[in-house]
Amino acid sequence: MPTAHISVNGRRYRQPDAPLVVVCVDGCEPEYINQAMAAGRVPFLASLRERGVCLTADCVVPSFTNPNNLSIVTGVPPSVHGICGNYFWDRDAGAEVMMNDPKYLRAPTILAALADAGRKVAVVTAKDKLRALLGHRMTGICFSSEKAAEATRAANGIDGVPALVGMDVPSVYSAGLSEFVFAAGVKLMQRERPDVMYLSTTDYVQHKAAPGTGPANDFYAMMDGYLGALDAMGATVVVTADHGMNAKTDAFGRPNIVFLQDVLDRRFGAGGTRVILPITDPYVVHHGALGSFATVYLSGSASLGDATAALTALPGIESVLPRADACARFELPDDRVGDLVIVSERLTVLGTSRERHDLSGLDVPLRSHGGVSEQQVPLIANRAATALPTGRRWRNFDAFDLALNHLQ
Ligand SMILES: [Zn+2]
After folding, report:
1. What's the 309 CA to ligand 1 centre distance in angstroms?
2. How big is the CA angle at 163 (ends 157 and 164), to the nearest 5 degrees?
3. What is the tens place of the pLDDT at every residue in 239-263?
4. CA dist., res. 279 & res. 318, Å (int)
5. How far is the CA of 377 from the centre of ligand 1 (A)?
6. pLDDT per residue as tens digits for the range 343-355
7. What spacing in Å lies between the alpha carbon of 118 and ligand 1's midpoint?
8. How do the residues of the chain divide into helix, strand and coil, expressed in percent and rounded to 5?
9. From CA 274, how far away is CA 280, in angstroms rounded?
10. Does the pTM of the predicted model rise above 0.90?
């Protein structure tokens, strides 16, 4: 083969010589796998203790779904690819907008580059909000569980998905939506044998169930079966996560929420500040749009120093950083971040105004993510690695580097 490598966003990747499956398990705090393993529910993953690799990696902060999925498939942080939340304040448009349109993506994906190099590539994501970003300028198969029934050859590179998978399309709020991703992955590996496949689930279960609980162990047992099937078909399997997940409650299970907009309005008056929660998306039932990361735009009377002092004094706040410091520390695009970035502590989430959050859908104690406290995620492979560099800070967006450049 003449060219055995590709270069994407300044990083070099060997092309795969066996089918590669990279899996992003949404909200997979390492403890979920650890507890499922202790309960004997994940025999395939347990078998990797002997023959695979298990690293702990840092995800991107804000520890949200879209920034991290895009980091994994581009191999670079949001300062390069541009996607730093589900949602942001578009200063040019003067509006709060969803960041799920590929026009906001500033870097090519490893998936598209491998497809351009002649490799057969397939992408399956649970929620449709990620599909267009992950499949941007990519030739191949790309569809979501959510809209699997509507997939067409012209738009998605495949049709007849429910029949192929042999499952009805599940509700967007169900564990089934992620199972459909894994089941589709196994069927695609059987029928199409793609050179590279990217599977991305949804954190519906992780938002509701703590590590080691029944629904959580059931989810990981389900996942383990499909991963084992991919392994048995000769695929290299690399598993990582977009972010962790923590309870955001007191000991009685009541949510610890700091309503930032209410605090700032009391201090500076209505209209002096604008709080943006980049976790906001169309599917908020299970977390009420509450996460551990927020950004604030200042105008009028609110000075940076006064706002910083007011926010730093609040209980549950871990850090309040001016834009430049936050963008340097978290590798974020400075044109899509407010004047201040606020990160809350492990047990606390950030809201805008109390009346803007509908918590009626929270039928179990709140679990969420977004902060530094959800930064550590697993990075697991079913192959041994050759001489991994010691002392390296692994990131979840090193998944393709690990898979293509370091595994045997
Ligand atoms: Zn997520």
Report:
1. 31
2. 60
3. 999 999 999 999 999 999 999 999 9
4. 18
5. 12
6. 999 999 999 999 8
7. 30
8. 35, 20, 40
9. 14
10. yes
